[in-house]
Amino acid sequence: MNRLNNERGFMLLNVVFLTLITSVAAMILMNAAPRFRNPQTALRLTAIHLANEQLAMIESEAAEGTLALNYLGAAEDLITENSGEPITFKVTATDKVANGLHNVTVKVTWTIDGENFTVEIERTIRVG
Amino acid sequence: MVRIRSGGFISAEFAIALPLLVLVVYGLATVGAKIFEVGKLQLADYVLEEEVHDILSHLIYDARAAKKVEYRSDSSMIAFTYRTINEIKTRRGNAYGTEIGDVIADKEEPRVYLLNNSKIYYERQNVPVNPITGDNYFGDTRVTQLKFSKLAEKVLRVTLEMRSEISGHKIKISTAVYMPGCESFNQL
Lengths: 128, 188
Known about the structure:
By secondary structure, chain A is α+β, with helices and mostly antiparallel strands. In chain A, 41% of the residues lie in helices and 32% in strands.
């Protein structure tokens, strides 16, 4: 009555099918994982270039002899709409002197939904 | 060999597995389509961000090495001429550097960026060569705004806004460059 030994090939084929289906599903789902999180690349990039702007201004002031650490760039660059709604950046700079070299660190921070994000860039600047 | 009573197992197998299979395939197809749609947009955005960053890095690099900077008032062209150089002969070849020691370029020839038809080109000998933005299969982009201005003495400010033709997203970035060796900086 139970003549499953006739169906051995079919049963083996089932194993192959199930493996294929599972691997395709795993492939698709694992592809989805990194795509759905938002790494905020556009905002980060804007912050990096804002820090660059601040460093350029500090450098230009420093060439004339004074190291100014307040925000010196264009005021309109502090606000970006790259993520849909306007976001305001906060720029701070700190100076660390070692062996007569000024190492200026510019820190750009912004907030989205109560969460803080930071980009920090450091450059050696010659004064005078 | 003739099988007389086979078929029961196969039909039972299909009766159980086929609806399940159809459901699983339908689910995967919808999720897959969604993922590929999201992936397409994400890829287009990556290209957009990469191009903006790339153009600005080129401009920063060239501006910092510039001796003479000229830009058109409508910002459709900017030309950087590198600082003069001293040739330094080494055993392995020739290196070039200024008196303050940074290696810059081997020839005094302007590097020209040209905005034409919403794309940025290099210009060599008054001929625009291949565009350095746009024409990307995964994320064609357009330059919607390019603006050069003088933020302070020896400080060039660049504003670049680009839009992806595929995702429709825009990115606008401003940056400033201090040009230590700049001797003439003017608007044409």
